[in-house]
Amino acid sequence: MSEDDNERQRILKARAVALAREPEQGAAEESRIGIVEFLIADERYAIESAYIGEVYPLKHLTPLPCTPAYVLGVINMRGKILSVIDLRTFFDLPDRGLSDLNKVIVLHDGAMEFGVLADAVIAARWIPRSVLLPSLPTLTEIRAEYLMGVTEERLIVLDGGKLLSDRGIIVHEEV
Amino acid sequence: MQWFLNLSTKSKIICCFSFMFVLIAIVIVTAYLGITATTQSQKDLFHENYTVSLDLVELRSDQNRARAQLLEMMMTGDRSKQQALDRDIRERSGDIDKLLKELAAAQKDDQRFMADLQELVTVRDTYRNIREEQIRLILGGKIEAARQLGLGPQEERYGKIRDTALKLEQLEKDQAKQRLAQSEQRTRKTLVIFLLVGVAAIFVSTAMTLAMNKAIANPLTEIAAIAEKIATGELDVNVPADGRGDEVGILTRTFRRMVENIKGHADTTRRIAAGDLSGSVTPQSERDVMGNALAVMGRSLRDITREIIEGVNVLASSSSEIMASTNQVAAGATETAAAVSETSSTVEEVKQTANVSSQKARTVAEAAQKAVQVAQVGRRSIEESIVGMGRIQGQVEAIAESIVRLSEQSQTIGEIIATVNDLAEQSNLLAVNAAIEAAKAGEQGKGFAVVAQEVKSLAEQSKEATAQVRTILNDIQKATNAAVMATEQGNKAVEEGVRQSREAGEAIRQMGDSIDESAQAAVQIAASSQQQLAGMDQVALAMENIRQASEQNVTGMRQVEVTVQGLHDLGQKLKDLVAQYKV
Question: What is the span of the domain harbouring residue B495?
Answer without folding.
Answer: 298-580
